[in-house]
Design a protein that fits this description.
Strand order of the largest sheet: 11-16-17-14-15
Low-confidence stretches: 1-8
Distance between the termini: 52 Å
Helix content: under 10%
Length: about 300
């Protein structure tokens, strides 16, 4: 903890917390008094201290993930507790309007899932992760781990759930719905590559055609530069290995994604009801993609993928 000595008359002590009372370490505090500005950071317990030759001044506090705060100090209160409010992020969606629009200005009902929500450990598949959205349902109660591919349809608010999906699912604008039957090919995109999922609940046919009768799901891929690998295993000799690599070269971003999944499966029929034809339900798939993206300034983005 840094200590600034600016006199001998008064001492200002305080603590930085959030709205729940939890302390915020490493918050940056600037104290202005007598025309001079001094700064320090809160310690591990959220505490800070200044010595001042004046009994009044202005405190400006900032911390990552929180909105900055300004507090006037007149010497009457010490120690001083300053509670910071969480920073409010302006969520921008493109699904509802086919244009970048603030979610507060969008008349359509849109829910945005972040990358951490999509990669929740409780969900093994992408369609399972989307069940966090109220009103989103699959045609069958079973997810893509066991459901036949031709029954992997999706709907919102109970609009025509069937094998032919009533929701249009897109990966950066490219449909994941089967061109013949409309069912969704959930296994084509590794979750590690998804930045966010925008779920439009309600009719989207005016912009996207008859495939969007029940809504639209837009999966936006990550564009940051990094290397990421994720591996999981289970008691059924299963494995799920995902990887992503991305690098920026000038105005181009080059990336590659891949996933390999497989297991020995499990019985979906109770032991007392199994016959000779009942075998474990297994799933194995691999996917991979490469992508080259070029930003066109304020006009949009151009990319080539396969």
């Amino acid at each position: 903890m840094a200590l600034c000595c600016i006199g001998h008359a008064a001492e200002l002590r305080g603590k930085i917390t959030d709205e729940t009372g939890a302390v915020i370490p490493r918050a940056h505090i600037e104290f202005t008094s007598g025309g001079q500005t001094y700064s320090t950071n809160s310690d591990a317990s959220g505490s800070f201290v200044f010595s001042s030759s004046s009994n009044q001044g202005t405190l400006q506090v900032s911390a990552s993930g929180f909105s900055p705060a300004t507090v006037q100090w007149n010497g009457s209160e010490s120690p001083l507790t300053i509670a910071l409010k969480p920073a409010v992020a302006d969520t921008v969606v493109v699904t509802a309007e086919r244009n970048s629009t603030s979610i507060e200005q969008t008349a359509a009902n849109v829910v945005v899932l972040t990358t951490s929500e999509i990669n929740s450990p409780a969900a093994l598949t992408l369609d399972d992760a989307l069940r966090q959205v109220p009103g989103f349902t699959l045609f069958r109660r079973s997810n893509s781990l066991t459901a036949n591919p031709t029954t992997q349809g999706a709907s919102a608010r109970g609009v025509g759930a069937s094998g032919a999906s009533r929701m249009l699912v897109m990966d950066d604008g490219v449909p994941l719905n089967d061109a013949f039957g409309g069912w969704v090919l959930w296994d084509r995109v590794p979750r590690i590559a998804i930045d966010r999922a925008e779920v439009l609940r309600g009719g989207g046919s005016s912009l996207y055609g008859s495939s969007a009768l029940g809504g639209v799901i837009e999966l936006a891929q990550k564009t940051d530069t990094l290397v990421a690998v994720e591996a999981k295993g289970d008691s059924l000799s299963g494995h799920d290995v995902q990887g992503r690599i991305s690098r920026q070269l000038g105005e181009w971003v080059l990336s590659a994604n891949g996933e390999n999944f497989g297991n020995d499966g499990f019985f979906v029929v109770a032991a007392q009801n199994r016959g000779a034809v009942d075998t474990p339900a297994t799933l194995a798939f691999s996917n991979g993609s490469v992508r080259a993206q070029h930003e066109l300034g304020d006009t949009g983005t151009m990319f080539l993928s396969g």
